[in-house]
């Protein structure tokens, strides 16, 4: 983001810096010396170059951006491996196990929860060094089954890279997380990413036919199946395992015909509570909108989809076989029964609010970095809970996190809410907090806000993450949410598959 | 089933007995003496009565029916516990762990895969005795959340029992496996049962919000969540665990408004291959029919839905918000493009073929028992595979299993196929084999047919079970299908949660 834009944006919030922090040059970084020598067999695809090491130090969390801006790369991995084949990847994992080197699987590096940053081992003592295992050279669509509409895709493919390979076949994976350009299939699978669809196929999990996973105990490959009831799902154990059980190298994914019919509109509500009721009614209607995103007043204004007085429900339908205007009309009708006013001229075209929201959605990651450069604290957290609790949860977040922000930052800042995904039994609210930071204290301020937010989620029995993953940042809350017998089972599974404890230590368990 | 009906039915198949075998009286059974004395604290809800022990010996597999007809109850449990509360259930599990008594969780006893029959421990030597843990006294809907449309239901509730409790609220779980009357929520969850919906929500898994599970290592309770991305799903580890990790005692389930609009029809095809193509096109259309069941020529005739020359695709749509005739018309149109002829007058009423199929579906379990009493071998097996493999799979089953039946039974018998559930990327074919058995040799003949069927499924990388579970009968094939690292993880999880190995030993691992 150009410096001028950072300044313009920051002008919307009082208390920020006048000029953005400069982005440091990699040559100026004070990288600690690498303590790891890889064997000659691995060196053709391993690097200890400062660009590679610095570039693989962090994900894209706010704390990562702040530390990167400060030139703090103390957590840099000792070496970055960029295998070109699964055989090379296996040789890395095997060697790391024998050498007691921690292995951090790395796709696009878009983790916002400390998922790719080594912070020490969790129980078995320190590792002798840290290797970042970058999968992006394994980015091919290896096979396409047009009959079943499925594709075998290597885990290191970034979103646009895999879509480019599917497009000539008229197919699409249609998984568009906000990080789409900078995240990989393997990362989505390992973190149970949330995607394009607001209903029904909300997570990447729902698009998986089979997985191939390299574990220190051997390669796990499930049958390609449209459905099965044979024991607990093997794939579901690896989905969300965040690299602690194995490294996903490829997957057969359900792909789709590209949609030929779309219709979308936006519906305004003067009351947020009424908008929530309308959203619930649509979610429970069985209409299955592709888009069903509720923006509260602040979020609607921030994204340019509203004027700050109304909440906005963005609705969209799509199909590859026929018009969807009827379904949109039914959804709009339901929203109208709850006091919503649809934008005039809704239908097959896209409404202004729809476009504004879409544009803001895609730009948000850049905006976040720009705001960080102006000294703002930016925290986004997302969750999910059932409809019966959602009003109380949102009120509590506004009250409790709002109070924490005032106390920590000395100003109200911004606290907006939108729903990213909805279900018949609940919704996934996503909160954005922006407030002025004190230079040098940003990280501890952010930590305090994060802690306040997590406490509120826990108190309301809302999940610590609906689609951002647990990583290292959500560990304290995750540990208190997860059933203890399941934690015991997961630890046991980890010990069986990764007996030396080298895989992404400190994450999940 | 009255004796007269058995005789009439058997007349359709040459080579069967003239008279049905009599059903033995429980007083005539030669039950082995019970070797287990439960402590006084458990005795108020435990029984060693012959009715209880004999009644909990088997599930409802063909081999179970044959052995029951022979009066063979050597596998009877030593004692049956019928706890009324979770606290009582916990006390049973705790005591069994200390006494080295195997615990077989038992719901409706409808397993068709040897899921509730003790056949010895798998590794840690024999158990001192066997306890059947019957959950049917825990059958209450404990709480209903009408806002989120969810209900907290005890695991021992049989299908009709829980639906009776939901009905006054205008709600339904709408999970109708063929065993509906004789199976419980806990059984469905532990075995990943397939239900009412032919698309989308095919398995009970999809209706689960949270689970409560008693394990020897403590009680596991997940948060009620509409969706989450916090690590691997705890619920998905217990779903399909078939009682080896813990005993599911209750669950928050997603329930629904009762449908107010339905439309269904049947479409005939002279070519089975064309019917498969039509079914695939409907499955990939995004129309999400509630019913989309393809019957091959033989299955259509057998159920009274066809004349034996045509395959029949039964289509149904339903909604609680508005008419579904348009969606039915679109699906019929797609089927027509593949050569299908819709029954005249299709629409909101139900067609004759639809009713005939539904009636046959509900009566099949009785039919099976009746045929067994006439000396027939009856084997049903079901699977799932992707569309690209489905034609070859069905051909192979007809050829290879057909040949095995001829060799083993000396007659062609019946070998029919229907699809129970369909997906955008594949389908779940269900096969019925009926052939004349030789008195006294039925079980070994059935074993041989089962082995031939399993071998064909394995060769085509089709799942050993789409919704009947693994139990003990599918173990040999399951062991060869499951990724070995996942097996290692599951064994480790089992050891962590059930260190004494008392829970349903011999199942899954």
TrEMBL record, chains A, B:
InterPro entries: Alkyl-DHAP_Synthase (IPR025650), FAD-bd_oxidored_4_C (IPR004113), FAD-bd_PCMH (IPR016166), FAD-bd_PCMH-like_sf (IPR036318), FAD-bd_PCMH_sub2 (IPR016169), FAD-linked_Oxase-like_C (IPR016164), Oxid_FAD_bind_N (IPR006094). Pfam families: FAD-oxidase_C, FAD_binding_4. GO terms for molecular function: alkylglycerone-phosphate synthase activity; FAD binding. The active site is at 430 (proton donor/acceptor). GO terms for biological process: lipid biosynthetic process. FAD binds at residues 105-111, 242-248. The record marks 293 as: Important for enzyme activity. Its cofactor is FAD. Substrate binds at residue 368. Residues 73-258 form the FAD-binding PCMH-type domain. The keyword Flavoprotein applies. Keywords: FAD, Flavoprotein. PANTHER family: ALKYLDIHYDROXYACETONEPHOSPHATE SYNTHASE, PEROXISOMAL (PTHR46568). Belongs to the FAD-binding oxidoreductase/transferase type 4 family. This is Alkyldihydroxyacetonephosphate synthase. It comes from Herbihabitans rhizosphaerae.
